[in-house]
């Protein structure tokens, strides 16, 4: 369990993290979502005691990082996969980490096995691909068998196979009952990986909810309708609770799905030339929501609808 309370970090004039409060529960993957520069890495560094908050606090299992006796046994992290001496082998890198945290040496071979690096354990880490380096970083995070794991943009730059591996691995860790907190700037990626989301923009909390709820809000679906009888259809749909916006010779309908629109049209003898759900601009909606978070962080739902309407025009 990770809990942040009023977490704030200021670098000179930049307010990198602004009064952030959220919690991350065990047994599931929680995504930490926000555009580049939103303050995700800074927050993760504060969780790990690598940066001190200007105000507020963050705890892991009720304790601040600095109060943990053997930190690696409580929390493991992958912040930067290339943080390995290039001339060290994977095994000697992990041995050095284990030694400094009083972790038994046999655990090194266990974690190499878990991440599938046993066959290259004695090879120079400097020659590893990004995907292999990520695995080595994850092996390091797992050394102390910690309850809490943090991953900062772990799929950046990976090929599809590497992305799939990481995604499955996160689920496995969560299924083991661990707290998994993973940052990304890609909503599409997080929608596939995380069951819960903490979303930030400009250092501020935008929402904390299930991924399903966030995606439904950000993509609040509209349906494009074209008909030679729009003048008759319009009042029918509005009376039934939908709202309509003129769009490219037709209308965009929100607050009603395409099945219902089709049924109402048929009941009223209205011919339709187009009835197409619009779901394509999820990432764009997310970027606009988070990009202007100071203004958008309250009326998320309404703003998401507006964004989708505008981008469909
Ligand atoms: N050491 C630092 N000194 C000064 N400013 C910093 C420092 N670290 C981060 N910042 C600033 O704080 C803000 C948040 O940066 P941070 O790296 O935490 O964002 P992020 O969401 O992780 O983005 P990215 O994915 O691009 O790293 C940015 O404006 C960044 O320029």
TrEMBL record:
Residues 2-227 form the ABC transporter domain. Belongs to the ABC transporter superfamily. Keywords: ATP-binding, Nucleotide-binding, Transport. The keyword Chloroplast does not apply. It comes from Amycolatopsis sacchari. GO terms for molecular function: ATP binding; ATP hydrolysis activity. It comes from the Bacteria. This is ABC-2 type transport system ATP-binding protein.
